[in-house]
Design brief:
The protein has helices at 2-20, 29-36, 77-84, 111-124, 139-152, 180-186, 191-198, 201-209, 220-231, 245-248, 267-273, 275-284, 304-312, 329-332, 334-345; strands at residues 39-43, 46-54, 62-66, 89-93, 131-136, 160-167, 289-293, 317-320. By secondary structure, it is of the alpha/beta class. It has a single domain (41-345), classed as Alpha/Beta hydrolase fold, catalytic domain (Rossmann fold, 3-Layer(aba) Sandwich).
């Protein structure tokens, strides 16, 4: 019996070793075209991917797109052309740790750093002194809230915000319901590194399918593109290791701190820690606010989320999409999403 288990072990070890070193999947033609149309700039020795498209000649308006977790700027592909017909410039980036941007390990990933990267990109493009419209989703909503806080407090080098449109993000920690796998990875422990290293397309697609509506599921090719963007530069390995210790010890983002890797999912804990700062920015601003909401969203469920949003932010306008639209409205209903956004932009 012992010899049998020994043989199984000897066979399993090299198989796992091979599996863990499988190269990332090749880019599809569509994803390759997206990357080829973009560029990189350097922020604190990290390469950050972005796209900057010239659009409508008769407009001077600029829109900056902030994507969600765990995907990338490619989330905006279905409304990209429509935006270029209205805005003079359409700009999107992959946050550090996402998409085609660098995914360092170890690294203290934080919303504060992502906001500084947006500022750095606009400075790189010579747009830091021009007003821009922010359009955000999910994780990007929280980055937008930090940018709004800096703008309202006249922080040096802050983005000049002309308007802000949020969509299906965990704006309020008390109404945010992360998926089970997010909770496991966020809280660290023995399972986190195992799950991230053994993750594959099948588990990724099944997990992401839960936040799309039953009638608006992406195609297999679209799921594969999302997975490819995650796997680029071993992005699946920076999601976990979300050590709470840095925050419990009170280390700010810029402090040297212990040599721990704070994974991307740490943003969930950051939302709780900095709720007053980020919700307060929305409550006190005079910037035009709008929300585009997919009501079938299990992460920010209806009516709980929407009732609180209208109660806390009565000055904001709201577009509620069809009942079958869920957490990724710009992908599930691109036309409805685009029309809602353009109606908001054209209203002021």
């Amino acid at each position: 019996m012992r010899e049998w288990w020994l043989q199984v072990g000897l066979l399993t070890v090299p198989l796992i070793a091979v599996y863990l070193h499988i190269p990332p999947p090749k880019l599809s033609p569509a994803l390759q075209s997206w990357r080829s149309s973009g560029s990189y700039f350097t922020f604190q020795n990290r390469n950050i991917f972005y796209r900057d498209a010239s659009g409508a000649v008769g407009s001077s308006d600029i829109v900056v797109l902030l994507h969600g977790f765990p995907t990338s700027s490619y989330d905006w592909c279905k409304i990209w052309e429509g935006l270029t017909q209205r805005f003079n410039r359409v700009i999107a980036l992959d946050f550090v740790g996402f998409g085609f941007s660098d995914k360092p390990r170890p690294h203290q990933y934080s919303i504060f750093e992502q906001a500084s990267i947006v500022e750095g990109l606009l400075d790189h493009l010579g747009l830091l002194n021009q007003r821009v419209n922010l359009l955000s989703h999910d994780y990007g909503d929280t980055v937008a809230q930090e940018l709004l806080h800096r703008y309202e407090h006249n922080t040096t080098g802050s983005v000049l915000i002309n308007s802000l449109c949020l969509s299906n993000g965990g704006i309020f920690p008390e109404t945010h319901h992360p998926r089970l796998i997010q909770t496991i990875l966020k809280d660290g422990g023995l399972l986190s590194p195992i799950i991230t290293r053994l993750s594959n397309y099948f588990f990724f697609a099944r997990g992401l399918a839960a936040v799309f509506g039953p009638y608006t599921q992406p195609s297999d090719a679209e799921y594969w593109d999302m997975w490819t963007a995650v796997r680029t530069n071993d992005g699946n390995l920076v999601i976990d290791r979300a050590s709470q210790e840095l925050w419990d010890l009170g280390y700010p983002v810029s402090a040297p701190g212990p040599l721990l890797c704070v994974g991307l999912l740490q943003y969930i804990n950051q939302r709780r820690k900095h709720r007053d700062r980020w919700v307060g920015a929305l409550q006190s601003t005079s910037v035009p606010l709008h929300l585009i909401y997919g009501p079938l969203d299990p992460v920010n469920p209806h009516p709980e989320f929407l009732q609180l949003y209208k109660q806390v932010l009565p000055m904001s306008t709201v577009s509620v999409l069809d009942d079958h639209i869920s957490h990724y409205p710009q992908l599930e209903d691109p036309l409805g999403f685009l029309n809602s956004y353009l109606n908001f932009i054209n209203s002021f």
